[in-house]
Amino acid sequence: MKLRIKCNDGITRDFEKGKGTEAICGHCHLYIVAKDPTELKDNCSKHDCDEVKGDIQLLHEKIAKLEENNVYLSDLHLTYISQIADLKNENSQLRRKLEFRKVGVQEERLLQTAKDVIRILSSESMSDK
């Protein structure tokens, strides 16, 4: 069985039932990992709520402060951080592939900084739960 889902990037994709799959929620732009494509639709409706948007807004304010210090995060990284706000779905896997851009700072140093940021934001989000 195939399920057709419109992803955040505007592309409609077919996912096969019973196979692990990933998609970006078209409503709230959170990265979703599901064992079954039917879970993607359920997760979409769960994510599209004011509580989660409020958490995401708080995280993005923290990210803005980082950018004031010349630490810039890619869209994929922002998507990953946004998903930290989705603490209701305990079983969701977070996408850990991170890409960064920054002029004048060594890539290795930036990667460590980003990992530290994720650790801090993640622990703050968990303590708010």
Q: Brief description of this entry?
A:
With 129 residues, the protein is an alpha+beta fold. It has 4 helices and 4 strands; from the N terminus they run E-E-E-E-H-H-H-H.
Question: What can you see in these coordinates?
Answer:
With 129 residues, the protein is of the alpha+beta class. The protein folds into two domains: 1-48, no CATH class; 50-129, no CATH class. It is 48% helix and 14% strand. The chain is built from four helices and four strands. The chain has helices spanning 37-47, 50-68, 75-84, 107-128, and strands at 2-6, 12-16, 21-24, 31-34. A two-stranded antiparallel ribbon has the order 1-2. Strands 3-4 form a two-stranded antiparallel sheet. A hairpin with a 6-residue loop joins strand 3 and strand 4. It is globular. The model is unreliable at 24-32, 42-54 and 85-107 (pLDDT under 50).
Q: What would the keywords be for this entry?
A:
alpha+beta; 14% strand; 2 domains; 129 residues; 48% helix; two-stranded antiparallel ribbon
Quote the average pLDDT. 53
User: How many domain modules?
Assistant: 2
Ranges with pLDDT <50 over ≥5 residues? 24-32, 42-54, 85-107
Distance between the termini: 37 Å
Beta-strand share of residues: 5-15%
Tell me the strand order in the biggest sheet. 1-2
How many H/I helical runs?
4
